[in-house]
Amino acid sequence: MKKTVLKGKTLQELKEYFTEIGEKPFRGEQLFDWMYHYLSDDFDEMLNLPKSLRERLKAETELKTLELTNTSISGSEGTVKLLLKTGHDNLIECVVIPEEKRVTLCVSTQVGCPLDCKFCATGLMGYKRNLTAGEIFDQYAMAKKIFERDITNIVYMGMGEPLLNYNATVKSLELFAGRLNKGISLKKITVSTAGIAPRIKALADTGLRPKLALSLHSCFEDIRTKIMPVNGKYPLKENIEAIEYYLRKTNGKITYEYTMLAGINDRDEDIKALAKLCRRMPSKVNLIPFNSVEHVHPEGFSGQLRPTPKWRIEEFAERLRDLGTTVMIRDTQGDEIAAACGQLAAVVIN
After folding, report:
1. Number of domains making up the chain
2. What is the mean pLDDT of the chain?
């Protein structure tokens, strides 16, 4: 008999499940609390459930969706990469990034990615399937159990495009927003997208209001399409209009993620175009040093990409600030274990 996977079900879905099997709906609240607040995967721990019900649940249902297969730790700054196996024997990665005042978890939403962004190792490995809401949430649960400090922030910036796995992404956000889950707040969660304009608007209409980041990388349509083929289907102009809609609905601020590529998007005209874009709405820019994807053996245009020198990144940032733009230069963390931005590809680096 195929077991029912309970991890990933919302509070309402759990109540409905227990009603269907002849139990009182409040059992759904109890299980929700165990799964999403106490992060338990063991029915034997759930002593407020009758033993007969616990035995039935063990026989007919499944809680755990992921298995830890490898942990890599960066010795320089303590970044931790978890290699996880799904129930379908696919491998995914998530990354814990410790800083002085916060600990950020970078979660994946797909096994691989279909977008083929030329600077990203995940895109170069191809796409296999979407993750379930339970598999997205379990990355948080597993990381929280392993890491000594509390996780304070979550970014949907790992493997995959969150808005191409829209239903599971939204459902996982609902789990984090659930009244019984006291571990994390949506105010501390950022969804990063390469730009799926209709889904940006749809996310705005949910009322969940996570922070939004756009993987930008160029303000010029032709260059952006070369770097990110998805721009051919959802042009930057359409995405900017969708972001404006999102900010009107949420009263928030957009973060533009901008990977610095030598000779491609680090020119003087890029500075002017980026500053002009940032004046349209409340925003900030994260400049990201290009991290090597050599561990996935890139070919063609991807193999030709080179990082912008550090001095130029700093000059680029300063000139943007002179034009009134809020800019951060993201520190590279975890590159020695292929855990830095753009490097996730389910590859073990020893």
Report:
1. 2
2. 90
| Alpha helices by DSSP H, 163-309 | 166-177, 197-206, 221-227, 236-250, 268-278, 300-304
Task: Tell me, yes or no, whether 322 and 191 share the same domain.
Answer: yes
Tell me what pLDDT residue 274 has: 98
Q: How confident is the model at residue 292 (pLDDT cuts 50, 70, 90)?
A: low
Residue 132: phi and psi, rounded to 5, are -80, 165
**115-124, 167-176, 298-307, range with the lowest pLDDT:** 298-307
Does residue 334 register a pLDDT over 60?
Answer: no
DSSP tag of 307: B
Same domain for 155 and 11, yes or no, is: no
CATH (domain of 98): 3.20.20.70
Same structural domain for residues 41 and 100? no
pLDDT at position 300: 66
In a domain, 117, yes or no: yes
Within this chain, do residues 127 and 247 fall inside the same structural domain, yes or no? yes
How far is it between the farthest Cα atoms of the chain? 69
Of 300, 286, 282, 274, give the one whose Cα is nearest residue 157.
Answer: 286
Q: At what angle are helices 310-322 and 268-278 packed, to 10 degrees?
A: 40
d(CA 113, CA 229): 12
CATH number of the domain enclosing 22 = 1.10.150.530
| Rounded-to-integer distance, Cα 117 and Cα 298, Å | 12
pLDDT tens by residue, 137-189: 999 999 998 888 899 999 999 999 999 999 999 999 999 988 666 668 899 99
Q: How many CB atoms lie within 10 A of CB 295?
A: 13
What's the angle, vertex CA 255, arms to CA 252 and CA 256, rounded to 5?
145
E strand or H helix at 72: strand 66-73
- Write down the pLDDT at residue 184: 82
Domain contains 347: no
The catalytic residue positions are 93, 341
Tell me, yes or no, whether 350 lies in a domain. Answer: no
**What percent of the chain is modeled with pLDDT above 90?**
76
For residues 20 and 26, the answer to whether their CB atoms sit within 8 Å is no
Domain range spanning residue 52?
4-62
